[in-house]
Design brief:
Layout (H helix, E strand, L loop, with lengths): L1 H15 L11 H25 L7 H20 L8 E3 L2 E3 L2 H22 L3 H15 L3 H27 L4 H13 L5 H21 L3 H21 L3
Antiparallel strand pairs: 1-2
Length: 237
């Protein structure tokens, strides 16, 4: 048992501290273009994120800002191409990590739900989380969930696709997660920053393990569905 735990820790440390670029041998012009695009669209996306969560819950402009945010991430990712879906080895075959991504997302969502049962009893934290979910409960829930899922996919295309590749040998798991946290904090709500720590790290490790963005995208979508459908009632919003 101790050997298994030690091996698991070593593998996790190797994934986090990995320095080799995912796709070595790329033309320096491609790398330079990607890095310029990433910086520009990081700034634009931070502005739209701050604007979206500064709106009044239920306001129609919220949907405009969040769609503009998703568009920003998608366009940035597309301009920094190429992007790769990735594969994982299962029973000796290289497969798309569909079940892996969804399973990790549902597990992470459950972890947040269990955590929510505890932190809802702490008034300051309860209020911060409730403030985020007011946008879901005071608007059209179906529309909010769909937009949130679209944004989740767009975020993974950009942060675990464009940004991760742009970092090259510069510890992409660590720094893509840190940058994701900083950008998320542009919302002004520290609880979203906390969520970004766990989600960002898990998604980055998936990106490293599968060499692509499909698993992180599916994880983000599944996590979003669990969070938006399960947590608001727990926080009375």
């Amino acid at each position: 048992m101790t050997t298994m735990v030690t091996q698991g820790w070593d593998e996790l440390r190797e994934a986090v501290l990995h320095r080799e670029p995912s796709h070595p041998g790329e033309d320096p012009k491609v790398i330079r273009r990607r890095r310029i695009v990433v910086v520009v669209f990081l700034l634009i996306g931070s502005v739209f994120l701050a604007l979206s969560l500064s709106t009044e819950p239920g306001a129609s402009i919220f949907y405009v800002y969040t769609l503009a945010l998703a568009t920003t991430w998608v366009v940035g990712a597309a301009l920094s191409r190429p992007l790769h879906l990735g594969r994982i080895t299962w029973r000796g075959h290289r497969r798309r990590p569909v079940l892996t991504g969804l399973g990790v997302g549902l597990g992470l969502g459950l972890f947040f739900v269990l955590g929510g049962l505890v932190v809802r009893l702490i008034p300051p934290i309860h209020d911060l989380i409730a403030n985020v979910f007011e946008h879901a409960t005071k608007g059209n829930l179906t529309v909010v969930v769909v937009i949130a899922m679209v944004n989740g996919i767009a975020e993974e295309m950009f942060f675990r696709g464009a940004l991760y590749s742009a970092l090259g040998r510069h510890y992409p798991v660590i720094f893509s997660t840190l940058i994701y946290i900083v950008v998320t904090l542009a919302s002004g709500n520290p609880m979203l920053g906390f969520a970004a720590i766990l989600l960002g790290l898990v998604a980055a490790i998936e990106r490293r393990a599968t060499d692509g963005i499909l698993a992180p995208m599916l994880t983000h979508v599944a996590w979003t569905a669990v969070i938006l459908l399960a947590l608001p009632p727990m926080f009375g919003v």
